């Protein structure tokens, strides 16, 4: 038992040998600095740290990765080196082509599994990524594919959870022009989460390539241990609804897709070929979810537009008077210190009436008026820290 634990600890370092991890980190960092660039372009100020995306990358997903690793270990699920090698290539290609948008597990796991089945069916060589103790021709391919379907269903459920509870977190506003040249507000949501999965690989695995690779024996079977960097991506532009509303709708659809894939997995136990259909449905279903959202956004009326009776708010910077008053995106400021405001100039004039105190009348996202107020301090922003659409 002690030997197994030592080898598992050594196997954790295997994640550093997979290029998909480095590509994911690089794209995440570039996305953060790209975001700050268009934040400054829209509002002349940085809204969130350029490292925000990287912090999210190493965030909540790691907990889910640990939980799923325990489940996979408990049921005795293992991956082959060939599948892992194909996965790295597929993930890198999808990240380079579609960035965060194409990093859904429906695409990465689905495409990888279909390609792997084609390798098995046509007996293509994957040298040097071949198992020495378990050649691909000796693999129980039907059982392997069925197990992958259930893993995909589980990962899609996790993806839905992350989209629901983290997809709209610290959403960054932006200003853009509509097709008619009208200035409107929008939100671009981009997230990438890392789920490191502890995998058992039958055979000598990478030990055939690297002498130092950790291996151990369970019964008559030899296993290698490695960490697989599952990466889940999410990217959408929101302009007709609040970010939290949009992510909720998308999460519900992804959850429905995960349930459908799980049902197809159950059917595939009786009819193994259905496992292939499950991967196709996962890919097509996730494409439909993205297309359906995009179509809804394009056909719906813009939400964040200039208002006739006030100033539309896109958000507030942290640690500012606006954030203390909890002014939210989509709300409309109608009065400042008792004076009606219709634009930025009106806001400045009203604030000058009393530089020690601010009282606002706001119309919230339910269309109801409310009063918010706060004291003003010398270090506070003159604009209250608001991001506005005028």
UniProtKB/TrEMBL annotation:
Transmembrane parts of this sequence: 12-33, 54-75, 81-100, 107-124, 144-168, 189-209, 255-288
Stored InterPro entries: PDZ_sf
Keywords: Membrane, Transmembrane, Transmembrane helix
Residue runs in coiled coils: none
Keyword Glycosyltransferase annotated: no
UniProt keyword Membrane, yes or no: yes
Protein name as catalogued: PDZ domain-containing protein
Lineage, broadest ranks: Bacteria, Bacillati, Bacillota, Bacilli, Bacillales
